[in-house]
Amino acid sequence: HAKKAGGGLAVFFEDDMNRLASERAQLESDLRHAVQDGELEVHFQPLVDCRSGALLAAEALVRWHHPTRGAVSPATFIPIAERSGLIEELGSWVLDAACRNFAAWQRAGYPLARVAVNVSSRQLRSDRFVATVRTTLAKHGLRASQLEVEITESVLVDDMALATARLEELRRLGVSIAIDDFGTGYSSLAYLKTLPVDALKIDRAFIVDIATSSGALALVRAIIAMAQATGKTVVAEGVEHQAQADLLRQMGCYCIQGYFYHRPMSAAALGGLLAEQRRPAPLLGAEALDH
Ligand code: C2E
Ligand code: MG
Ligand code: MG
Ligand code: MG
């Protein structure tokens, strides 16, 4: 009898797994056409100087408007693109769109220092990646220092030697490098001594409790101190409340990204915001992102 019940459970579980697998396969085949069919769009979220409210930079975040499912989260489809190899084409498309929009903002005289693009492990490992970056920058007339590449620590775990080589090539070009979701990976902190990293982006998971937990606050203070001691810019991600922004400012973390200031928005919406915020002293606050 027990065996029978266990068997039933296994069948139920297997059904679930099959459903998930076929859902994934369906999304993967839909994603294959998404770039050509114009279903992807790049949104941008500003990084803000919490002392002045000035916009410092913008992070490109891809959006997929699926014809029948509506918006699919990048947290769902980026891993699918990564495993299926589609990430190279998708990533190049995002890089191009990010640079094209940034170049237009530059021409309009908007004082954004740079645009940040997320790069996944497989993309960074590709032999074509650095050439694609170089060509895309040239195509849009951007200086390499106007691009920041965001990688997560998992990239370093996948193949430390190759990732290091690639990051050094990017650095020689003049591209800046940020560690995204800092603190959530399983890699050794030793890389901070040797890798050409310009900025640490403290993950939202650490920021969420700083106004309510002294332990969380102490941890973030320590991360900020570590970034400062190693000469890196520090960015706080996922700031949703005034109290969090105030605490970060008191601790010397001035570059903030989060819903408290701005949600990710379309390129047109960010263009409008930049036009509105243009000031007589255009580089006001730029030292918060000084790299
Ligand atoms: P990420 O690079 O860490 O990007 C930050 C994510 O946090 C974004 O989610 C953003 O919308 C969200 N966020 C920003 N501020 C707040 C806040 O105050 N509260 C909360 N709850 N969330 C906030 P999104 O756009 O859904 O992207 C999720 C992840 O997908 C990104 O995390 C990144 O890892 C990946 N991703 C997005 N676009 C790309 C891309 O073009 N290429 C690659 N390889 N990955 C991408
Ligand atoms: Mg990111
Ligand atoms: Mg992040
Ligand atoms: Mg993240």
TrEMBL record:
Residues 24-278 form the EAL domain. The keyword Transmembrane applies. The keyword Plastid does not apply. Residues 10-37 form a coiled coil. Keywords: Coiled coil, Membrane, Transmembrane, Transmembrane helix. This is Bifunctional diguanylate cyclase/phosphodiesterase. It comes from Lysobacter koreensis. The chain holds residues 634 to 924 of 924 of the full protein.
